[in-house]
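Sanity check

After download, print the first record. It should look like this:
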Amino acid sequence: MDRRSFFTSAALAGGAAVAPTVGHAVEPLGRKTPSRLRLSCCAYSFRQYLQGNDRTLSLEDFIGLCAEWGLDGVELTSYYFDEQTPAYCHRLRRACFLAGLDLSATAVGNAFAVPPGEGRAKQLETIRQWVDLAAEMGAPCIRVFGGPVPKDATLEQATAWAVETLQEAEPLAAARGIYLALENHGGVTATADGVLAILQAVDSQWVGANLDTGNFHGSDPYEELARVAPYAVNAHVKTAVQPQGQPAAPADYARLVQLLRDASFSGYLSLEYEAAEDPKTAVPRVLGEIRAAMG
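Expected structure tokens:
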């Protein structure tokens, strides 16, 4: 039995799948060129200004700010779109082009760890819709979530469901040349083992990792980040790292940059700001700190 059918068979039988051995995970991306890092920012960093009836920023305003800060790209989170139409995506694509910015990625809210049925069908429809929109606006990558472990399910069963659903979503993305970037974001992707097990089972050139530097909370988050980095197609940089049982500590940007370079990662470091200080003052400063670490 191959590694795809292993998970599928276990889930359909209602049993618990055992995660594949991480030591034999799907091969890294095999980049042969020197690491090239670019700087971006996630629209999520300005969420309090981009949503609600009294919002004070549009995504086009955010694009303008990123241009002022001298960034290379922007990540436009799906939550803040005025419309989910090709015409609106073309407006955003034009705004990025005229500002001299790449559209580094978009990001959706989803949960792949769901059993077969109506819930899974809705998740797949979300991915289908956003793959098409990503292609319209020229975003090469979509950040996706594995999802939480559903009530009354085991971690193994939830992982099997996540693999199944991601396997069904993968052809939708591959057909449009769009990467699905699985983020380490709790639930079935709370650990490096969990992320790598899913990537192994899906085993696709159009599925990689969205490496979030603040979302591993084991005894050594940097070690887990280093293990997933060879599979990363996008990276979210947070301002803090929090090992298990310890208070949050400021992120070591130089260490994060080095582990990505050691993994031959080329692509975007997108700041995803979540700290308490107003992003209007904090984000430009943090971007400067990350840029200095990039050298």
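If your output differs, re-run the checksum step. Summary of this record's structure: Confidence is low (pLDDT under 50) at residues 1-25.
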